[in-house]
Design goal:
alpha/beta; two-stranded parallel sheet; Aspartate Aminotransferase, domain 1; about 400 residues; pyridoxal phosphate; L-aspartate:2-oxoglutarate aminotransferase activity; binds pyridoxal-5'-phosphate; 16 helices; globular; aspartate transaminase; transferase; Aspartate Aminotransferase, domain 2; aminotransferase
């Protein structure tokens, strides 16, 4: 017998999506969900995905058999090349264990479960703020969560000195440090290349374990290599770290749950032992990962034409988002909305961290049917040519009237 469990609050983002769906006002806008939308406000199936999907279904040998525990081999191999680079020396060293996971969330979960069992420290440091689900995933894996400063509300940028100070003076050897590989969620603020280099030095000196979360490679800048800078820099300098890779955003495969976990070990011998431990964890949790998204990604990455189409699709998505940043900023500036709005274009990726207060966000939801997180985070993909002007007007109203 179990005691009746107490009810708890719903997940804020999924709750917001539910409210948006139930809203019958015609001019509603969804700036909450982290999913790409076309300029018509519709979900977008990437042309490379559509082509690969048709090819897979037309293949007479197509079936719905189980994948291996570690996933589809062609998929994990090519996914590791996307993140570490085609000619990665690290991959050639055979020190990487690559497992297909239930998207990026599953990679975070499997990585955390592994470290919770085998890392010397059970403490993980996450940025303040971070993706809300990090807390839930790491708590579930029995890691102890601590936060390091990241966002500076005064500059609407990186709180660099405080971040370094915390890592240097408050961490212990072996502690895990979560790093967003690019397009930090929710702030859209990334370290510069020079700051990544300094971070790498501090992390080595303090013997921290880097835990990279890479959910936006190529989606952020439009360039897969540019967005992998931090991971590839660390790959040349750190003997042990891991990478959680999601193909939800950059392939638009959200619901197909297509991701991978790459654990880098000191030697190839250790890596093969890690493979066996990941197999045991994965078998107990999900037995084997979902097949369809992995087949699509593997088909695209194996075909030079489809690969090129994917690169074009990434540019289509990232360019539209960048354009929306500029357009929103220019509407707010022409309205003379109090405050500065440069941060909208300085930030990168899916999200903008607007600086709107919880009260202002609440009014946008209640009065204007503009759905956004209460921390002021907006998905730039929710903006389009038809709604950006009216959303700017609504923001202008709440900024003037509400604290
Ligand atoms: C920082 C970060 N990590 C991981 C994920 C995982 O997403 P998914 O499980 O859909 O791949 C997301 C998605 O929003 C994210 O923003």
């Amino acid at each position: 017998m179990i005691a009746a469990p107490p009810s708890i609050a719903p997940d804020p983002i999924f709750h917001l999506i539910g409210l948006y769906k139930a809203d019958t006002r015609a001019d509603k806008a969804d700036l909450g969900v982290g999913a790409y939308r076309s300029n018509e406000g519709k979900p977008w199936i990437l042309p490379c995905v559509k082509a690969a999907s048709e090819r897979i279904q037309a293949d007479p040998s197509y079936n719905h058999e189980y994948l291996a525990i570690s996933g589809l081999d062609e998929y994990t191999k090519s996914a590791s090349k996307v993140i570490f680079g085609q000619d990665s020396a690290l991959l050639k060293s055979n020190r990487v264990s690559s497992f297909q996971t239930v998207s990026g969330t599953g990679a975070n979960h499997l990585g955390a479960a592994f470290l919770s069992k085998f890392n010397s420290s059970k403490t993980i440091w996450v940025s303040d703020p971070t993706w809300g689900n990090h807390f839930k995933v790491f708590e579930t894996a029995n890691l102890q969560i601590k936060v390091y400063p990241y966002w500076d509300p005064a500059t609407r940028g990186l709180n660099w000195e405080a971040l370094k100070d915390t890592l240097q003076n408050q961490t212990s050897p072996g502690d895990i440090i979560l790093l967003h590989a690019c397009a930090h969620n929710p702030t859209g603020v990334d370290p510069t290349h020079q700051q990544w280099e300094e971070l790498s030095e501090i992390i080595s000196a303090k013997q921290l374990y880097p835990f990279f979360d890479a959910a936006y490679q190529g989606f952020a800048s439009g360039d897969l290599d540019h967005d992998a800078f931090a991971i590839r820099y660390f790959a040349e300098r750190h003997a042990e770290f891991l990478v959680c890779q999601s193909f939800a955003k950059n392939f638009g495969l959200y619901g197909e749950r297509t991701g991978a976990l790459h654990i880098v070990s000191k030697t190839s011998v250790v890596a093969r032992a890690v493979d066996t431990q990941l197999s045991a964890l994965q078998r107990a949790e999900i037995s084997s990962p979902p097949a369809y998204g992995a087949k699509i990604v593997a088909a695209i990455l194996a075909d030079p034409e489809l690969y090129q189409q994917w690169r074009n699709d990434l540019i289509t998505m990232s360019a539209r988002i960048k354009e929306m940043r500029t357009t929103l900023k220019s509407h707010l500036e022409s309205l003379k909305t109090p405050g500065t709005w440069d941060h909208l274009v300085d930030q990168i990726g899916m999200f903008a961290y607007t600086g709107l207060t919880p009260g202002q966000c609440q009014r946008l939801v209640n009065e204007f049917s503009i759905y956004l997180s209460s921390n002021g985070r907006v998905s730039m993909a929710g903006f389009n040519d038809s709604n950006v002007k009216s959303i700017a007007k609504a923001i202008d109203t709440v900024v003037r009237e509400t604290k």
